[in-house]
Amino acid sequence: MTVISLLRLDSPADFADWYRVGAEYVLTVSEGMGFETGTFEADFREATNAMRDGDTDLRPELARSVAADLLADAVFSDPFCEWMPLWYELALAPFVQAADYRLRRVAREYATGLDHVSVPRFSRPRDVYVDGRSALAHVDGFVDQFVFADALLHLEWYDHVARESGIDVPRSLVERTRRETVDYYTGRREGLSEDVRRFQELLFADDVWVRDIDDAYGLDSALFGVWERILRDERRRLAAMAPKSE
């Protein structure tokens, strides 16, 4: 099977593992940073089981988490691809559009009955300027572009989904992480402050997200393998930057 086989996913039950893997990522980052997660772990497991049964009538806090996760995934890839070389963006465009449609369609089933649920807006190259030019102008090479795009967008993804799932993410940390991330990956600073470095190390655990999606859906995807390797290497590099204990 390949990544294209994901386009067969159509129902809430099909997306149960998709939501589960995203929720586990949110939990990993939140616990790693010491954020209060309340009942989130029990809640997302309850939501996952309900999705497997095809149940869309969830408690509002569960429905909001599911809808937020799926909507964030629906709109993640298009802006991400804008940070990448044109050949990559064009190659993935049909898949991105189809995935957006399917994720939104299932998300709407869980958004029904909620007072509101927002679709996040992820940064594109035209939104981030460094020295008067797009930040992308300061990043060369496929891997560096991929890592920079992910460092910025997975922060935005996590912040949105965690908050919609009832986890209080410190706004000041998110804002500072964004500033330092842009400066660091565009060569304007040599390192990251320790809490930002730790935050990004945990956020780069999205290599586990990629691997778990690949495993859950039996993809054995070469493309997912490339993504996982790039993300894992950056996570390990950030981990190696941690201060050495005495």
From TrEMBL:
InterPro entries: DUF8116. The lineage of its organism: Archaea, Methanobacteriati, Methanobacteriota, Stenosarchaea group, Halobacteria. This is DUF8116 domain-containing protein. Residues 1-240 form the DUF8116 domain. It holds the Pfam family DUF8116.
